[in-house]
Structures are given as C-alpha cells and as structure tokens.
Write a structure and sequence with these properties.
Layout: H1 38-43, H2 47-53, E1 59-63, H3 79-95, E2 99-103, H4 122-135, E3 139-140, H5 142-153, E4 162-165, E5 177-183, H6 185-202, H7 204-207
Parallel strand pairs: 1-2, 2-3
Antiparallel strand pairs: 4-5
C-alpha cells in the first residue's frame, strides 16, 4: 500500500494509484510504511501524527496483517494484540470524527504444486472482518478479491502483476527479481481498482468525488 522509494522501482504500492482516482476536493495522504504491523506502526510513532492531523470527515483506510502474522518477524503481533490494535485505530479515528475503513491484507502469489492459490492470510483476515462487524466499520475484503483476481489470471500470467524482472531488465535490479509479495505498476493499479470498486458501493459520499472521464 505504501509509497515506494524510487530505488525499489518498479515496485509499486497499491495505494499509490489513488492520487489519480479522485477530483480536486480529495487529498490522498498515504502514511503506509513497508514492513510495519499494527504494533510497530504504533511503537514507532507512525500512528500518532495521523491522529493529530486527522479531521472530521476524513476517511482512514486501515490495512494490516502481512507483518503481524509471521511469527519469525520482529513485527509479529499475536491474534489478540492484532484485534486490540485494530480496535484502537477504529476508536481513535472515530474520536476525531473520521471514518475508519478496515481492509484485509492483499494476497501473496503463492500457488501450490497443483496450481491452487494458498490463502496465507486466512486467520488475520478473519480478525479484520470480526472487528469490522463488531465495530460496524466499512469493510473491504481485499484478501479474497485479490485471490479471485490472481486465480482469474492463472498461475503463470499472475506473475505479471508482481515485481518480477529478469537479470538486466532494470537498473535497480541488475541480478533480476522474483517477488511474489510486492506489485509492479500494473499489479498495484489492478489492486487499487478492486478497492475503488468497493468504495463506489460502501462510501457514497467519497464515491461522488471519483473522477469521471468524459468519453
């Protein structure tokens, strides 16, 4: 979701295309950071300035899970902590009269030997859904929607959504790259479009600000 450093291009966060989706009445302020979990986003002080600058009527899109769920990472967050942190984000957004939106983590490209896409985010995605239901928060199941998209593309063609490069193809990756977690520009746009489709139905006031291209 994050805005990527130019040295990692063509890696592209799915939040980056959003600046082109809305008219001039909307300011897209992407505060996401690579590698952060619900816990480390708090402990590193990244959430505090968000709440300090948040205004009534702002939409706060909240997506975590990738880095919370892996027990071997320093960012690991237990299931109970993950739920409590999401609830904190919702509570503190609402305290500023902002509108939180919970989003499940976008899928990884992980197909098994039989060509079936593995759901690597199942447990933590269910927690996001649980919090959204209990707190009555708008909810976008990007985990499921992105899985459906990868399956539609197929095992090999789905690689064209991710940061895959052969040696010598791009100066940032002289040895090449095979990254099944992070997207390229095309993949980021496809994921962003999945979220935009749900914005149209879930958030009518924001949807009214979507740019309409004249044909």
């Amino acid at each position: 979701m994050a805005i990527k450093d130019p040295k990692t291009y063509p890696e592209t966060g799915w939040g980056m295309p959003f600046v082109n989706f809305f008219d001039s009445t909307v300011v897209v302020d992407n505060r996401a950071k690579n590698g952060r979990s619900t816990r480390t986003f708090l402990t590193e002080g990244l959430w505090k300035p968000v709440t300090e600058q948040m205004k009534a009527g702002d939409y706060v899109f909240i997506q975590f899970g990738h880095n919370d769920e892996v027990a071997t990472k320093k960012s690991f967050t237990t299931e109970a902590e993950f739920q409590a942190n999401l609830e904190k984000y919702v509570r503190e957004s609402r305290a500023k009269k902002a509108i939180p939106v919970l989003i499940t983590p976008v899928t990884l490209r992980s197909f098994d030997a039989a060509g079936k896409l593995e759901d690597t985010h199942l447990v933590y995605s269910q927690i996001v859904k649980k919090v959204a239901q209990e707190q009555q928060v708008p909810f976008i199941d990007l985990n499921q929607k992105s899985q459906d998209l990868l399956v539609k593309f197929g095992v090999e063609p789905s690689a064209f959504l991710f940061n895959h490069l052969v040696p010598g193809e791009h100066p940032n990756y002289p040895q090449g790259k095979e990254d099944n977690t992070h997207f390229n520009e095309f993949g980021a746009r496809k994921m962003a479009q999945l979220v935009l489709a749900d914005i149209r139905t879930l958030l009518p006031n924001l949807a009214s600000r979507i740019v309409h291209v004249k044909k």
